[in-house]
Structures are given as C-alpha cells and as structure tokens.
Specification:
Number of strands: 5
Largest sheet: 5 strands, antiparallel
Helix content: 40-55%
Radius of gyration: 17 Å
Structural class: alpha+beta
Shape: globular
Order of helices and strands: HEHEHEHEEHH
Length: 151
Amino acid sequence: MIRPLALAMTLATTGITPALAADLVERKSQHTVAETIDRLEAAVTAAGATVFARIDHAAGAKKVNADLRPTEVLIFGNPALGTPAMQDGQTAGLDLPLRVLAYENATGEVIVAYHDPASLAQMHGLPADAAYLAKMTGALDGLTGKAIAAE
C-alpha cells in the first residue's frame, strides 16, 4: 500500500499525471468482440485510414496457458492527422496511431474503449483547440459507431 501512495505522491509533485478514467470513452457493442473489430476494421479501411495492427490479447494469453475473456485491439491512423500532432509534440507518437479496444466484460457485455483524443493535448502539450484533435474525436466517434451499430 505504501508503494502506490509513494508513486502517486511522486507523480503529483513532478507534474506527471496518469491518464484518468474520464479520458476513457466506452461504448457497448451489439456484436461479439471479433465481429466488432471486424466491423471497425472495415469502417477504418472504407474511410481511407490505414490499419497497422490487430492484436488478439486472448489468443496471446492462450499461448501461455492463461485465460482471458475476448479482448482485441485495432491500431489505425491517418498520417494527415497524426503528423501535425507529432509536429506539435513528438511525444504524441507514443499514443499514435490511434487504438481501439474491444473486450467482453465479466457480465458478457462487449465494450469498445478508446482514449479521448483531447487527452493527447494534456499529455503531450498539444494545443487543446487543434483541428486535428477535433477530427480525431469525430473519426473515433463515427468509426466506433459503425462498429457497434445494430445491423
């Protein structure tokens, strides 16, 4: 218990703050995790963005004989939006390209989650009113909306 408290105090005194839960956008999906990520991938591709990777965490867990409910991440982006962000603050490259997680929770619901792009401004010193942040926010909302929508 002392170590987490000490870490929190250290972060607070250095000005470094971990991402807050408020920065996490979560939406329920009507589909399985795999279907949700399939639908997201199709929406991303149709929008002209690039899919860089798809990670199946549950499959990785199986490789080490561990159980994990279905959990997948899609990593994608558009250099027309990401590059200006990194020009304003190169450390934004730690959080770009964008990532969306789909997972099955303990009650069997499928949840889609991603960090609000506004958190990039706080974490990397980007202008809070940057047009690319608004475009990223709109893109994530629209793309995840297509992924979770009922047929």
